[in-house]
Amino acid sequence: MDIKKATLNELDSLTELFDLYRDFYEQESNLEGAREFLKARLMNEESVIFIAFDENHPIGFVQLYPSFSSLSMKKSWVLNDLYVKKNARKKGFGEKLLKKAIRFAGETGSKGVLLETNVENIPAQSLYEKIGFKREENYFYFYSVI
């Protein structure tokens, strides 16, 4: 397996994976929209995406968005998206993508990595806890839909 920081050269592979990721969350397929969304993130350097290949076949990705902690006065990263193709799951690819994201956060002098997941996504929660993520119990998160 090879993991690399994605560039526009990987846009076609990322688009396919991103559309499958959105399908996992029951969103309608939109390859053109996915392509434009990812292209904008990469061109504007608004996110960092790592893509995993198995024998040159794209099998997964992780996408990080920058954030900042005012109290610690440090950068932080939001792990917003993690996806591994169905036929490649339970083979360690997700874990390797997560560890790559954590190493990258450390290399950028970040405070840490924050992620959220659906309460019903037990397999993901198990993986996150296995590699050291802790469930937040001290804060409530609120969201306003616009």
Quick tags:
4 helices; 146 residues; Aminopeptidase; alpha+beta
Notes on the structure:
With 146 residues, the protein is an alpha+beta fold. The chain has a single domain (2-115), classed as Gcn5-related N-acetyltransferase (GNAT) (Aminopeptidase), CATH 3.40.630.30. Helix content is 35%, strand content 26%. The protein contains four helices and five strands; from the N terminus they run βααβββαβα. It has helices at residues 11-24, 31-43, 93-107, 122-130; strands at residues 2-5, 48-54, 57-69, 74-84, 113-115. Strands 1-2-3-4-5 form a five-stranded mixed sheet, with helices on both faces. β3 (57-69) and β4 (74-84) form a beta hairpin. α1 crosses α2. It is globular, with a radius of gyration of 15 Å. The model has no long low-confidence stretch (mean pLDDT 95).
Structural class: alpha+beta
| Gap between N and C termini | 40 Å
Q: What is the highest CATH level, the class? A: Alpha Beta
Order of helices and strands: EHHEEEHEH
CATH-defined fold name: Aminopeptidase
Tell me the quaternary state: single chain
CATH homologous superfamily? Gcn5-related N-acetyltransferase (GNAT)
Major pleated sheet: 5 strands, mixed
Q: Characterize the overall form.
A: globular
Mean pLDDT: 95
Number of domains: 1
Runs with pLDDT <50, length 5+?
A: none
